[in-house]
Amino acid sequence: MALAVGVPVATYLGSVLSWRPIFMAIAAFGMLGFFGLLFGMREAAKDGGDASAGAALHGLRAILNPKLLGGTLVTVMAYAGSFAAYTYIAPLLVQVTSISMSTVSIFMLIYGVLAAVGSIMGGRMTDRLGADRASLIIVAGIAGVVFGMWLLAYSPVGMAVLVALLGVLSYAAVPALQARLIGIAEVHAPRAHGVAAGLNIAGFNSGIALGSLLGATTIGTVGISFVGLAGAGVAGLGTLVLLVQMSRSRRLDLAVGGHKHDRPRKA
């Protein structure tokens, strides 16, 4: 919610004020959060030394689990694709789509509202379709939307629809990919649900950083109108990785089920 609401609000304020007070406000909120953590969080009871060491070792093994890292890779690619375009959406809309900065602020506000809707929608999709199918639809949707931003970069109406869809899908991905990685942990790294959740959050943030770098590199080489195409490439690759992982998981389930049926039954 902070990202979904804070970005459009800051974009709007930046269009009517200088950027300096916006950054000062961000610093003030950061300081407020620091003191909130410092005085508001109670210290957890400390476990025994052996138990703590064992838990730390188990957590380290879970972090290095190839299945969890593979699931996290999908998160990284999905968000890199989304934020390759979204990080530079304001200059893209102004320089290529040729709309005013005040209109950009409206676009960002719509993005933020629909991001909140997407968070709810992603959870319901995951409940109805399962984490794998929901994640596949959402990641493929992100690839399609940012590809559309390349195709329709000169259309104000088209970009309005695509920015709104990007808000929905980018935040629908949060519960779907989180549930998927925790499901992987249940099978391949029991008692590591917290590690899986942490890896997924790291994947989101790594994807945002990677997407920003990808977008900047694209702008510096071929121009800002191609950030959508670059984002579509990495999100599309994430979709392929997810399909491969789903196929392997399905084959493993069939193999395990077959072995169970091959066991002799007692008379």
Task: Outline the structure in words.
There is one protein chain. This protein starts with a helix and ends in a 5-residue tail after the last helix. It is built from ten helices and no strands. Residues 263-267 have low confidence and may be disordered. It is 85% helix and 0% strand. 39% of the residues are buried. The protein has 267 residues and is mainly alpha-helical.
Topology, pairings included?
Elements: H1 2-16, H2 19-40, H3 49-63, H4 66-86, H5 89-95, H6 101-129, H7 131-151, H8 156-188, H9 193-221, H10 227-262
Helix pairs in contact: 1-6, 4-7, 4-8, 4-9, 4-10, 6-7, 6-8, 7-8, 7-10, 8-9, 9-10
Spell out the key features of this protein:
disordered C terminus; 267 residues; mainly alpha
Distance between the termini: 59 Å
**Biggest sheet overview:** none
The beta-strand count equals: 0
Structural class: mainly alpha
The residue fraction in helices comes out at: over 70%
Order of helices and strands: HHHHHHHHHH
Show unreliable segments: 263-267
* Average of the residue pLDDT scores: 86
In angstroms, what is the radius of gyration? 21 Å
Basic shape: globular
Strand content: under 5%
Number of helices: 10
